[in-house]
Amino acid sequence: MTKKGTRPAKNSGDGGGIPSESLPPGPPVPAGPTVPDGHRSGFVAIVGRPNTGKSTLLNRILDQKLSIITHKPGTTRRRLLGVYNRPDAQMVFVDTPGIERPSSKLGHFLLEEAKAAVSGVDVILFMTDGRDEGADLQALELLDNAETPLIFVLNKVDLIKDKKTLLPLFESYSRAGRFKDYFPISALKGENVDRMLSALLKLVPEGPRYFTPGTVTDTPERILAGEFVREQVYRQLHREVPYAVAVQVTEMERDPKSDLLRIEAVIYVERKSQRGIVIGKGGSRLKQIGQGARLDIEKRLGEQVFLGLVVRVKPNWRQRDAALRDLEFDN
Ligand SMILES: Nc1nc2c(ncn2[C@@H]2O[C@H](COP(=O)(O)OP(=O)(O)O)[C@@H](O)[C@H]2O)c(=O)[nH]1
Ligand SMILES: [Mg+2]
Known about the structure:
Blueprint: E1 40-48, H1 54-62, E2 80-86, E3 89-95, H2 105-118, E4 123-128, H3 133-143, E5 150-154, H4 166-174, E6 179-184, H5 193-203, H6 221-236, E7 246-254, E8 261-269, H7 272-279, H8 284-301, E9 305-313, H9 321-326
Parallel strand pairs: 1-3, 1-4, 4-5, 5-6, 8-9
Antiparallel strand pairs: 2-3, 7-8
Helix pairs in contact: 6-8
This protein binds guanosine-5'-diphosphate (GDP) and magnesium ion.
Guanosine-5'-diphosphate binds at residues 50-56, 69-71, 75-76, 98, 155-156, 158-159, 186-188.
């Protein structure tokens, strides 16, 4: 995988440009040569302002929990690939951090991460919930990508009672002159998602697979496990605390005695007072965070795990380059 951008080297028949240690176990499947005539493949980035439902769409398309979702804006912090396979096509979807004007060093990282994620993709899905057209158009400018075909995706249409309001909304956005096609969907309920997928298939070129079938993502399970912990923090804590949290998995190894997979993670906060909040009375909050995350990790890995969590203070980490690098925010 190149440092910038999303697209690995076009497939050479060995499963694409992903390191083999991140592949799930299983028999090696020749990726390139076996695809049928007319096989199509491509990269599709999902971008948009925070909280519009980008991660929900990724999980819906893949029919599994890969990306974390909360009702709070600004949850997704890393570009995340999800590989959608069909006999006649492979589309690699890229979930991205929400686009907004950065207010911290972390914010700058997130915007760069979103920009890097769209570089070299075949199609960009621009997702909105239609609530703030002005802000959407500003986000498009921040993204600063003129060449790639843009598809307008209006999400959360399950919340729209009067579908007659859709057409004027599309007309209004169409004045920007940027979009090639328009889809109203509900990522949450799955409405219209298949139709959108069929349309996307026509927009990606003919070509071989980038990833071996069976590969869902190139993100290591260690990182996903940390993300599942962070999701619980977002779900269980409020106001500023979740935003001040970063999670790093420090160990993931099989305990020889118990045969359990042992995962150790550190929850970093910015201030001592936040540490107390995350731990909770008598450790109760931390325990609940751990329980929630463990269930998700176990479901993902298909086995029981031991999850050990500690909370540490890393003062002001969102504003410090060195701290961001320590926490693997490094693009
Ligand atoms: N009603 C409704 N809610 C949705 C839909 N898609 C996402 N959401 C909710 O919107 C919030 C943000 O979703 P998320 O996928 O994290 O947004 P992201 O920040 O763009 O990745 C969550 O509470 C989702 O459950 C949808 O189609 N309909
Ligand atoms: Mg997200």
